[in-house]
Amino acid sequence: LPLAVLAQLAVHSDFPPMSHSLQYVYSGTSGIWNLPEFMIVRLVDGEPFVHYDSNSHKMTPLQEWMAKSEGPDYWNTESQVAMSDELAFENNIEVAKQRFNQTGGIHTLQVMYSCEWDDETGVSVYGYDGSDFLTLDLKTMTYVAPVMQAVPTKLNWNSGRAFLEGQKAYHTHICIEWLKKYVSYGKSTLERTVRPEVSLLQKDPSSPVTCHATGFFPKGIVVTWRKDGVDMHSDVEVGETLPNGNQYNTNMYFCCRNKQRSFTSDHVGTNITQVFQTGWDDRLSSYKELSTVVQNEALKLRQSESYFRAR
């Protein structure tokens, strides 16, 4: 078949070794009748692996690797700690409502702590009704209050040096040790590598060219178009990376209005080289895949996810 354009789609990357993160998200609510008043979700690399809510009063595993790694003593202890946190959240929501001069209505309180494997820093953020309430600055080891209603708590916590030292130790050491423990439990799942299935599509010569990368893991993947080895940024739109079960999908669009224009698409985020030879078929008015060469290497990604833990 006569081909007017020959395009090459290459999938490869040059990423640093994979990093890991641990997240705790604590959420308390008031005035939402069909939602548990208190919930905890713990995540490794953005993957939920533990859950607690005020309806069950039990900390439960969400991943098979976590269920196999800990016994009854762990789950009983964690459930007891979570119930104490639940009582604290009930009290803290009432305190916040008083400070904002609120009586009824729907209100939320969230606490988010995070840490990363190779980084002795973290995130500690308290939010109320969708806005920041308190933030811990780990460089200065002081709490910052973006709203006046949080100032009494800021002054109280910043005056307790032992409390602040405990927070520093948690974020720079204790949290990271727990992260390493959890990663060791789920290593075969968390560090699994699934190459993307890649396709290059175009309806007609005046339509945008769409590059689909689907079914890959880990999450991080960056898609770019290249021409003659140079990244192209004009006429390019990159889509979101979205979950697809326990994997991810992403896509990007390139406005290729001149069918004589050749191009290369580089998907950065996996150490995989996947080449598609495709071309415009004038008689069929469609893109046809001619050949595929796939070179599998070890997948390595750096993921920057937050880890959250509430007191």
TrEMBL record:
Alphabetically ordered keywords of this record: Glycoprotein
InterPro entries: Ig-like_dom, Ig-like_dom_sf, Ig-like_fold, Ig_C1-set, MHC_class-I_related, MHC_I-like_Ag-recog, MHC_I-like_Ag-recog_sf, MHC_I/II-like_Ag-recog
Ig-like domain residues: 196-255
Protein origin, superkingdom: Eukaryota
A biological-process GO annotation: immune response
Stored Pfam families: C1-set, MHC_I
GO cellular component: external side of plasma membrane; extracellular space
Annotated family: Belongs to the MHC class I family.
Family matches, as PANTHER family: MHC CLASS I ANTIGEN TRANSCRIPT VARIANT 1-RELATED, MHC CLASS I-RELATED
Protein name: Ig-like domain-containing protein
Organism: Paramormyrops kingsleyae
